Amino acid sequence: MSQPVAILTRHDKARLIAPALSQLGWQVAEIDSFDTDSLGSFAGEYPRFMTAQECAFRKAALAADLSGLNIGIGSEGSFSVGPFGIGTYNLELICCVNVAEGWAVTGRFYGPSLAQQWQLNDTAALEQALADIEPDQHLLLQQGSNLKKALTVAQAHNLALLWLAHGTVTLSYDLRAHLSPERRFHIRQAADDLARRLQSHCPECTTPGFWPDNALPGLPCEACGVATSLTRHRQACCRRCGHTTITPVAARHASQQYCQECNP
Ligand SMILES: [Zn+2]
Ligand SMILES: [Zn+2]
């Protein structure tokens, strides 16, 4: 039985998300009558009171509302400094709400991104920056109040050469999904994660999204048996009925290097 679901997007994300959901028998209909750019910058415009998760949820609810379908999907990507302050990381969230049954499940991808920004002063620096960029990755070029978006590597190269005659040029990734192959790859992985979560049901009430997200520490030290900060169990908790399962991880012991007693 084919189940129609709606996604709110103007950047062709339905094409990226649909394959993962087709294994559930879902057919993704794209709603492009709505300007998601007015929503797309939720995180940027209201960083103080809306998280990426809230944006994805709001888009999903809106997709269901506007389409009149029970199931809506919303996607939100963000970039931030990586763990330990190193590199750039991309978080992709795909939220699925069922307004008839009253549940929401979010699939995610979190991992390193090649996205960078360069302040360029000469041709050599420009050539060096462009050398490592994936062929389909589009770029932004900025100088003072001049901003050009969606440039191919060749276009960015030619325009930057002209602009460099007038001073420093800022070159960066255009991270909109239809212009970034890396982001499309990450969105597909978030869609796979969503499909896995949707197929995992609460054993008590059958609500989808039953997933061992909570890591409980306490894996014992291999030498002295004292509990370490490493994960010992994983906990899944149903958001609807509260049913909880706790499963031990595969590892039985933690290496001494994580032990406060053996390696303080
Ligand atoms: Zn439940
Ligand atoms: Zn120990």
Please tag this protein with its features.
7 helices; four-stranded antiparallel beta sheet; Maf protein; 3 domains; 264 residues; DUF6671 domain-containing protein; single chain; binds zinc ion; DUF6671; alpha+beta
Q: What does it look like?
A:
By secondary structure, this protein is α+β, with helices and mostly antiparallel strands. The chain folds into three domains: 3-114 and 179-198, Maf protein, CATH 3.90.950.10; 117-174; 214-258, no CATH class. Helix content is 27%, strand content 31%. It has seven helices and twelve strands. It has helices at 14-22, 37-40, 42-45, 52-67, 123-131, 153-164, 181-198; strands at 3-8, 26-31, 71-81, 88-98, 103-113, 117-120, 139-143, 146-151, 169-173, 214-217, 231-237, 244-248. A five-stranded mixed beta sheet has the order 2-1-3-4-5. A four-stranded antiparallel beta sheet has the order 6-9-7-8, with helices on one face. A hairpin with a 6-residue loop joins strand 3 and strand 4. Helix 1 runs parallel beside helix 7 (181-198) and helix 5 packs antiparallel against helix 6. The N and C termini lie far apart (58 Å). Mean pLDDT is 91; it is low at 40-46. The structure holds zinc ion (2 copies).
